[in-house]
Fold each of these.
Amino acid sequence: MVNRRYDERDVRIRPGRGSRPRTKQRPEHADAETALVTAVDRGRYSILVDPDGPDERVAVAMKARELGRNRVVPGDRVDIVGDTSGDDGSLSRIVRIAERRTVLRRTADDTDPVERIIVANADQLVIVTALADPEPRTRMIDRCVAAAYDARMDALLALTKADLADPAELVGMYAPIGVEVVVTSAEKSEGGRIVHGLEDLRAALDGKTSVLVGHSGVGKSTLVNALVPGTYRAVGIVNDVTGRGRHTSSSAVALRVPGTSAPTWVIDTPGVRSFGLAHVDPQHLLGAFADLAEVAQACPRGCTHAADAPDCALDEWVAGSPDETTQAARTARVESFRRLLASRLGSGEPDSREPARP
Ligand SMILES: Nc1nc2c(ncn2[C@@H]2O[C@H](COP(=O)(O)OP(=O)(O)OP(=O)(O)O)[C@@H](O)[C@H]2O)c(=O)[nH]1
């Protein structure tokens, strides 16, 4: 072994971490384009590339592996790479999901204990309810309103079949709690169906993305058909926007509403009966009642604002009304809020998944 002196050749100079080119530090998919997800069917996503832009086109995408188990749902704004041409047989990849403004979850059930997101970025929940045949169920409406408010969405009540029953009672019940109400009736005519009140509905949807919900038979298909002609076929949905294929699964589909002043979408949710209310945050619900939210600032910390909540400022507010008329109005308002709050428990009846409250 040569005994030599230590010199600078013995010093190993390693490039610092910062100077090494690292893939992760490069902007990922800088060439990505933006798209709107309109439907999901067995791992394939119908998307609209450059929505409302000069190059708007329909395409099909799959989820990139890097997104892992993150769900992509109708209403999602996404970044896509790959073949985004939309040509026959083309397939792009969704590499990013934009931050969601709102999320609507469907209720967990026995077979699936998780409340899954079904729609993203909707502004409004449209609760389609028949005035008769089938009879309206206010408990179901309350649950939907609570879900909408909790998701920070507006609630719109579309009352159908006004030719069969008077809407006054339901209008009187929901209009005072900030729920916009539209009344329609469909009439058979030679050329198909005329839906009276359709223009009111279209105006209430204009410029927004609205999720339509309703039980079977309430006339939801009749409304969607009138708003977006040619959408439905007997065997399933052919998406006019995506243009291709048949959408027979029970997941939500976004449809563009023509004849409006600003881009307008309805998202139909076949088979969705109810929404996730297990984690309703009283503060979110309260946010939909600006006057009550202000009063509730004086509540004790952690106040649930429920009827049995001790020292709830809402009760003091009602009790301290200057006159009888004001007291009646305040009582109605607090009761409406509490009804929505209680609807997560199934309107007084214990929910199968939740213990009854004392
Ligand atoms: N009298 C009356 N009948 C209506 C009205 N709107 C729809 N209907 C009828 O109600 C029934 C149900 O209407 P649909 O539009 O199929 O209802 P849906 O909510 O889509 O129900 P599903 O198709 O079962 O999901 C049909 O027989 C319609 O003709 C209405 O305004 N007045």
Amino acid sequence: MAKKVSKEKSKVELDTVSVFCRLKPLKDDTELSCIKLISPTVISLTCPNESKVVRKDAHYTFKHIFTSYSSQQEVFDRVAYPLLENLFNGKNGLLFTYGVTGSGKTYTLTGEHYNPGIMPRCIDTIFNSIKSNQLPKFMVKSDRMNGFDVQNANDAKAESLLENKFSKKNKKKGEKLPYTYDGTAIVEINATSMYTVFVTYIEIYNNTVYDLLDESGTKVLQSKILREDSQKNMYVNGVVEVEVKSAGEAYELFNAGHKRKRMGNTLLNAESSRSHSIFNIRLVQLGNVNNSNVLLTDENFLKIGQLSFVDLAGSERCNRTQTTGMRLKEASSINNSLMSLRNCLEILRENQVNNSNRLIPYRESRLTHIFKNYFEGGGKVEMIVCANPTANDFEENMHVMKFAEITQDVKVIKPESRYTPYRKICKAKEANDTPVNKVKTLSHGTKIPYIKLDPENIDDSIASIHNLTKILLSRKRNSVVHNRELNMKEKQLREKICSINQEHNANLIEMKNVQQQFNKMKRKCHRLETKAQELQMLNEMVQCKKESHTDTFTTPPSQRKETHYNKRTLDSQRQKISTVKQDNANFEYNKKMRKHRENTELANTDEKVKRVREMLANSDISVIRAKQKFESLFTESTNKMFTLKGSSRKQIRRSRSVDNVLRRQNSDDISE
Ligand SMILES: Nc1ncnc2c1ncn2[C@@H]1O[C@H](COP(=O)(O)OP(=O)(O)OP(=O)(O)O)[C@@H](O)[C@H]1O
């Protein structure tokens, strides 16, 4: 078996990608066509008269061209039947439809309810072929890491009974097919093998993978990540892989998934696929059935064939479809992924032609990443180019044909039958068996007997020795077998540990990425919060300003509102006003006080002057003394008076005039 698994590199055979073309019928005979059929393998593309750019006629060759009259059966027979034969030989196959939106890709792969396309026909053919050689359900189980486990028939039966009980409560699975099929079957299948079929259905929407069979109950499909298994095959982590036992069951699952697929109404197609969808069939072959119809499963390898049907979303020029918003985003994502596919194929071809070693950017898009294995020799690749021959589609058809030209130049390694190691699981036994018990039950055969050699009975002794030799030889043979089994188990265990380790590492990396993303988002959130606060403050200020301005313009000053903003300014202004008022009051008070003082002083002086006059009038003898006293009093009061301003000066002048009068009176008195 090891020989089967290992590949001898020297014997590597290359195979080109098979490219077919299918022409969609024109709506009516009056419609102009830009595609002419030259031969069953050649078409010519003619530039329509009304085209702005004049281009020469171009010829394109395909493996086969299906005209608008070709039936779904014809397409199936030529394209899919050989892939099914490969599938039964444990070889992988990839079939994808490519073309402009509305050119008939979904029609070719899925078809209509009563006129099925390639995919339903394939499912039917598989079940027609394995009819009597189906394994009981749940004997082979997906390990959710692209591998399989095998359990014994009793455990499988118990699980199946449980499922039946459950499904009876809910709904009956495996409805009848909506069409009657002709019973096509693969002729050459290994009739001694037992088979079982698994299906998955995923879509790639806006470069994210979603599981269309996910029935976990959440309304929104959860995104999935791509992983590499222990044999370097790409797979969708945690994808729901369902074991189906009839074509009806598989078709029902497909329909359920198709309802979840993102479709949309565009100008060019009422039911346009907005995502790339991949329906995957895995046919698992287990062991051989002997003459008495007993399954021998001790080979430890499963023969697994995989067939992937890819319905690519159509390339579209947004100015033609007039898409906007969400549809525009979808369209650009579709075009980007198709561009990546084209890019990868171009580099692959360039590497093969020039013998160069340029890195192929499979990781650029999920679409190319998931099919990396196929382009690296993991299986047979086929493509159907769908074309709508209307003159309006000329430009886009030209791009599609160029892509087809590149694709059919690409060579991939011819696929080989795939054998995958599996893990045997035995629930009932494993639960009871402790490691100690296992050691106890491990025996190399019949117990070594105790023999006693009797020299007197030589014949008996010789017979005993013969018997012992026989037992020992059988034990030796058994021990060799056991050792081999042990080595095998050890190898499997190692592989399992390696894959668990890989899984663990991938999880760690993923966790780290998620953590980084989370921290980044947290920082961003914090920044946005601060900015929001700032903006809120700014907004409040602007609002206040606006209110104050509105207030100023709309209401008279006496009725103006005191808003939050002008309140503050008013407060400060009020404060200023109050200080100014205080100053003014102080000033007034000082002024009054000064005036008051001046008045009292003047009154005092007047009083003194009056008294002096009276004295002068009453006594002539004391005139000189009185005059002296008057002089001193006058000087004193004048000094005081000089400190006063303005009005007080008048008083001084008045007192001087009084003084002059007095002097004159005195002089008159003396002369007399
Ligand atoms: N060969 C054909 N014969 C008859 N009808 C066809 C054929 N090809 C396509 N059609 C019809 O044309 C319409 C558009 O086809 P379809 O949905 O398969 O296009 P598509 O390429 O998958 O488009 P999109 O990329 O937008 O999903 C459908 O109504 C389909 O029935």
